[in-house]
C-alpha cells in the first residue's frame, strides 16, 4: 500500500501541507565579527528550496508592531530600543552590537514567529526559518535576544482568543530563562526546557519543568532524559498550540556546547517531538533557536534535519489520507 500511495504522490506532485516562514532580510544584518551565524538563515532557505519547496510554500512575515512588543515587554524597554538609548550595560547584556538594522531583524523575527503560530493553528504545522529568542526578558534583552518572539506570539494568540492552553518545548542548548520568567505567573503556558545546566544563563528562573543535562552527556543520556516527557506532556497539558524551539546548539561540535550530541541524536529528538504532536493532532509551530558550530554548514544541516522531520510528519498525515481514499474505493 505504501508504494501505491507514494506513486500517487509522485504522479500528481501532491503539495505538502506545510508552510515555511522566512524573510530575505533575515541574513542582511552586518554584525561584524560575531559568533552569531546570521548567514545560516539564507543557507537554510536555499536548502529548503533544494528540497523542492516552491515560492508559494513560503510566507513572508511583517515586522512586529509596538502593540505586539508591549504584550510582553515594558514600555520603557521598548522606548529605549526604538530610540537607540539602551545603556552600555544593557547592550553588553545583549551581547550584540546595537543598530537600527539589528532592531529591524528582531522585529521581523518576532513577526515571523507570530505568523508561524497563526499558520500552525490554521494548518497544524508550520516552520519558521528563524526565531527562538528565549533569553529576552520583559525589561531587557540578553544572550543575542532582543525581543522574546515566542512569548509575544503566544500572548497574541491568547489575547485574540485563538488558544486557551499552550506548551513550549525548548530544546535549545541553553535554558529558556526569559520565557520561563515571563510565563512564571501565567498558568496558561507550560514551559519545558531541556538544556545543559552548567553553562549560561547563570541565573535560571524555573520553567514549569526543567530537565538538566551536564557537560559530556551524549545522545543516549539526552534521549533517556527527554523520552519520559514526550508525549506525556502533550497528553497532560492538552495544549491548543505547541511552540518547539529546535536549537541546533546541543551539537557536540557546537562552539558553545559541552554536550556530546550527534546530528543523528538531535534528529531523533526532533522526530519524537514532531511526530507525537502530529499523532495527537496538536498544532505545532517550529522555530530554530541557536546553533554555533565551527562549520556553519553543520548548524544548517541540523536545522535542515528538523525541517526534514517536519516534512516527513506532514507527508505521513497526507499519506494516511490518500491511503484511506484509495482503500475506500
Ligand atoms: Zn542556545
What does this protein structure show overall?
The protein has 329 residues and is of the alpha/beta class. It has one domain (2-327): 3-Layer(aba) Sandwich (Arginase, Chain A), CATH 3.40.800. The protein is built from twelve helices and eight strands. An eight-stranded parallel β-sheet has the order 2-1-3-8-7-4-5-6, sandwiched between helices. α1 packs across α12 (296-327) and α2 (40-50) packs parallel to α12. The chain starts with a helix and ends with a helix. The structure holds zinc ion (ZN). Zinc ion is lined by residues 172-174, 247, 249, 289-290.
Which CATH C-level class is it? Alpha Beta
Average pLDDT taken over every residue? 93
Q: What is the tally of helical segments?
A: 12
The run of helices and strands is HEHEHHHHEHEHEEHHEHEH
Radius of gyration: 19 Å
How many distinct beta strands? Answer: 8
User: Which hetero compounds are present in the coordinates?
Assistant: zinc ion
Portion of residues in beta strands equals 5-15%
Going by helix content, strand content and strand pairing, the class is alpha/beta
| Share of helix, binned | 40-55%
Total number of domains: 1
The name CATH uses for the topology is Arginase, Chain A
Residue stretches low in confidence (pLDDT < 50, at least 5 long) are: none
* CATH architectural category: 3-Layer(aba) Sandwich
In CATH terms, the superfamily is Histone deacetylase domain
Terminal-residue CA separation: 13 Å
What profile does the largest beta sheet have? 8 strands, parallel
Q: Which strand order do you get reading across the main beta sheet?
A: 2-1-3-8-7-4-5-6
What global shape is seen? globular
Amino acid at each position: 500500500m505504501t508504494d501505491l500511495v507514494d506513486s500517487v504522490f509522485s504522479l500528481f506532485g501532491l503539495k505538502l501541507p506545510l508552510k515555511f516562514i522566512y524573510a530575505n532580510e533575515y541574513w542582511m544584518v552586518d554584525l561584524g565579527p560575531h559568533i552569531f551565524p546570521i548567514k545560516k538563515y539564507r543557507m537554510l532557505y536555499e536548502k529548503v528550496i533544494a528540497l523542492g519547496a516552491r515560492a508559494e510554500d513560503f510566507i513572508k512575515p511583517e515586522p512586529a508592531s509596538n502593540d505586539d512588543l508591549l504584550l510582553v515587554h515594558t514600555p520603557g524597554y521598548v522606548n529605549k530600543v526604538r530610540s537607540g538609548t539602551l545603556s552600555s550595560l544593557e547592550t553588553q547584556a545583549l551581547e550584540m552590537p546595537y543598530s537600527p538594522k539589528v532592531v529591524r531583524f528582531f522585529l521581523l523575527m518576532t513577526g515571523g514567529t507570530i505568523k508561524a503560530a497563526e499558520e500552525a493553528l490554521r494548518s497544524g504545522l508550520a516552520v519558521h526559518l528563524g526565531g527562538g529568542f528565549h533569553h529576552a526578558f520583559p525589561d531587557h534583552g540578553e544572550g543575542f535576544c532582543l525581543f522574546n518572539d515566542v512569548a509575544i506570539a503566544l500572548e497574541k494568540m491568547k489575547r485574540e482568543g485563538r488558544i486557551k492552553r499552550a506548551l513550549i518545548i525548548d530544546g535549545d542548548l541553553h535554558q529558556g530563562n526569559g520565557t520561563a520568567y515571563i510565563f512564571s505567573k501565567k498558568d496558561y503556558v507550560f514551559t519545558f526546557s531541556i538544556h545543559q545546566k552548567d553553562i549560561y544563563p547563570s541565573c535560571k528562573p524555573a520553567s514549569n519543568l526543567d530537565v538538566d543535562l551536564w557537560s559530556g552527556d551524549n545522545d543516549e543520556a539526552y534521549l533517556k532524559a527527554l523520552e519520559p516527557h514526550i508525549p506525556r506532556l502533550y497528553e497532560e497539558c492538552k495544549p491548543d498550540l505547541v511552540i518547539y524551539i529546535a536549537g541546533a546548539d546541543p551539537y557536540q561540535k557546537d562552539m558553545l556546547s559541552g554536550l556530546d550530541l550527534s546530528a543523528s541524536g538531535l534528529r531523533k529528538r526532533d522526530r519524537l517531538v514532531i511526530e507525537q504532536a502530529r499523532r495527537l493532532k496538536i498544532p505545532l509551530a517550529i522555530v530554530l533557536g541557536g546553533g554555533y558550530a565551527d562549520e556553519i554548514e553543520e548548524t544548517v544541516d541540523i536545522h535542515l534535519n528538523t525541517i526534514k522531520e517536519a516534512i516527513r510528519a506532514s507527508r505521513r498525515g497526507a499519506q494516511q489520507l490518500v491511503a484511506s481514499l484509495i482503500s475506500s474505493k
